[in-house]
Amino acid sequence: QVQLVESGGGLVQPGGSLRLSCAASNSIFSANTMGWYRQAPGKQRELVAFIRVHGYIHYADSVKGRFTISKDNAKNTGYLQMNSLKVEDTAVYYCNIAPARADYWGQGTQVTVSS
After folding, report:
1. Are 18 and 8 in contact (CB under 8 A)?
2. Residue 101: enclosing H or E segment and its boundaries?
3. 27-82: per-residue pLDDT in tens?
4. Most distant CA atoms of the chain, gap in Å
5. Which residues of 75-109 are buried (b: 16+ CB within 10 A; e: fewer)?
């Protein structure tokens, strides 16, 4: 089965940057939509961004202009570049791939924005 491994989370000050990575065990990124979600304590998991096979990209209003989603099919890896981070961005961030007959999630990586 497909495995997704996330990395890049950590502690950063407000205004700082982090780049999250999502490494897949096969070439699943080339033929499926990839999305990033996040979940803060006591809140529902929410969509941050996704990128479709043909290039369409969607961002949540809360991250537009600050976050960039991308993928490298040759490396079987997806990314979320996060700039101008705010305290309210603090959450566990998850990578997701959802083919028609499956729904794959990474283990999550903690992002903490604090001074």
Report:
1. yes
2. none
3. 888 889 999 999 999 999 999 999 999 999 999 999 999 999 999 999 999 999 99
4. 43
5. ebbbbbebeebeeebbbbbbbbbeeeeeebebebb
